[in-house]
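Following the same procedure, the fold was encoded as C-alpha cells, giving this record:
***
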Amino acid sequence: MDNDVKRIDLKLLNNQPVFRIGLFNGQEHIDFRIMGKFHVEDGDGNELVPVTESNLKWRVKIKDSKPGKESYFLVLFEAFDRETVEAKLDIARKIDPSAEMVVLGGDIFFGDRKINNNAKYSIVCGDYPSELAARKSFKLFQPQFIPYVEKKSVKEPQGQLEIFDAEYDKSAEATNVVRIVPVKTETKIKIYGVKSFNDILQKENFNDLIFDGTMEFRFDHQSNLMAISEVPLESYMKRVIYSEIGTDLPLEFSKSLAIVCRSEAMARINHRRLGDPFDYGNTGETLRYYGEEYDDVNIDKAVEETAGQVIFADEYIRDTPFHLICGGHTEDSSATQPGNGQIFFTGKYDAKVVPKKFKGLRNEDEAVKWINSRPETWCNLKGRKLPPALEKVKKYFRWEVNYSRRELEEIIRKKTSEDIGILFEIIPITRGASGRLMEIELIGSLKNYRIRGQINIREALAYDYLPSSCFLVERELDETGTPISFTFVGAGHGHGVGMCKTGAAIMALEGHTSDQILEHYFESCQLGSIYEKNLK
C-alpha cells in the first residue's frame, strides 16, 4: 500500500454507508417540522432534547457567531496513476515552485473488508483571496495544464445556536452544531422558506423543502446557517434518482441509474477538497439531491432490487459519470480529465446501428455535418410519445443560443478576466469523440485567447453555461465584415461522458434491461455488491 494512501472506514447505519449531503447555506434562521419521533443533540452527540414527538414548528437561530475564512487554489492535474502525476509535477514546479501533489481518497473499508481503493493524486498550487484572483492565474499554466479553481477552509466559523419549539416549551443551546436525529431513518423533516438567489434573474426565492434522515444545522463561513442531510446509501439513492430524472420512467431505466449513481457515490468517497463538513453537495456537480416530495413505486423498487450494486473493473469501483442528453454520441471518459491518458469508457454512437455517413466527429467537417443533422439515435426524441420527465429534455438534442457581439465580449471579460477587444471569430481547435470542443481560440482586436477544456469553454461563452461544448458558431456580419452577433448551434446537454440518461430511458421504454443499458454505455464492466464479500 502507498505510504500516502490512508485507510477510510465507512460510517455505517443499518449496515449501509452513511453520506453527508450539503443542502443550502446563507440562512438567518431555519424553521422546520418533524413527522415522527426524534431527539436533538450537539455536534459531539450529547443529548440536548430527549426523544419527543411534536406537531409544532421548531426554529434554529443564531445567538452569536464569528465568520470563518476560506482561500482558493488551483488544481492543475489529477489522475489515479501516481507516476503520471509525478511526471506532471516536475513540469508544474518549473512554472510555480509551490506546486505540490496531494493524495485524495484511499483504501475504503466496509467494516473489516476493504471494498475499494480510490486513491487519486492531484497537483495543486496557489493561495488566492478570491475565485477571480485564482482564475487570473490560469494563463500561467496553459497550455501544459487545464486548471480549475477549488477552495479550502482556513478558519472555521464559530458561535452559539438556539433551538426551540413554537411554544418555547422545549429549548436548548449548542456550540456550533445542532443535530435533529429521528428514531426511524425514514422520518421526514420539512424545512420552511429556504432562501436562495437566482443570479440570472437577480431575484430571491423562498422554497419549502422536505428530506428524511438526520438533519444537521451549523454555521457557514459567512456565519449564517447551513443544513446537512445525513442519510444511509440506499435512502440517498432514492432521492437522487428522483432528483436526476423525475418520475414515471421505466423500472429498468431506474435500476440502471441506481447502479450508476451508487457507483459514482462510492467511487468519489473523500475526493472533496473544500474542507466542507459534508461529502457531497446537492447540485449537478455531484449527484442531485433535491428536497421535493415524490411518490414513485419504480424508484423505490429499483433501489431495493439493486441494493449495493456498483460497476467495477480491474477490482476497482468505477466512477461512472452520466449526463442529461448526449446529442447522439457519447464522449471518452478522459474528456472530463484531459491529459491523464486514462479512458475507462469510450465514446460511442447512442444508437443500435452506427450511422455510416459519419466517419468520426473529431474531424471538423464531420462535426459540423453532425450538429446540423438530426440522426436517428436513442436520445433523438422527435416523434416519440414521451412521459413528462423526458418531454422537457427534447429541446436539448439540438439547440441554439444567440448573443450580440458586445454582449458576448462582456461575458468573456467577466468569465476569463481577459479583454480581447472586438471579438472577430471563435476558432475550433480540437474536438473529442462526440464532437465536443476541447480547445478553441478567440480572435480579438487586442489579443487572441485560447480556452482549453470543455467545461471552461461552456462557462466562458455564456452567462451560466452553454448546454454543451458540441457546437458550431454562426456569425452575422455588418457591411465592414465586423460581427454583429454570434449564434451557437449545438447538440446535447452536459459533458457527454458515460451514460446518456435520455438515451437510457428510451432504451428501457423499448424493452432493454438494465444490464443491456449498462453494457451499452459501460462496455466490459462488471457488476458487484458492496454488501457481498467477493467485491474487493
Remarks:
- The mean pLDDT is 92.
- The longest strand covers residues 16-27.
- The radius of gyration is 24 Å.
- Residues 69-155 form a domain with the Alpha-Beta Plaits fold (CATH 3.30.70).
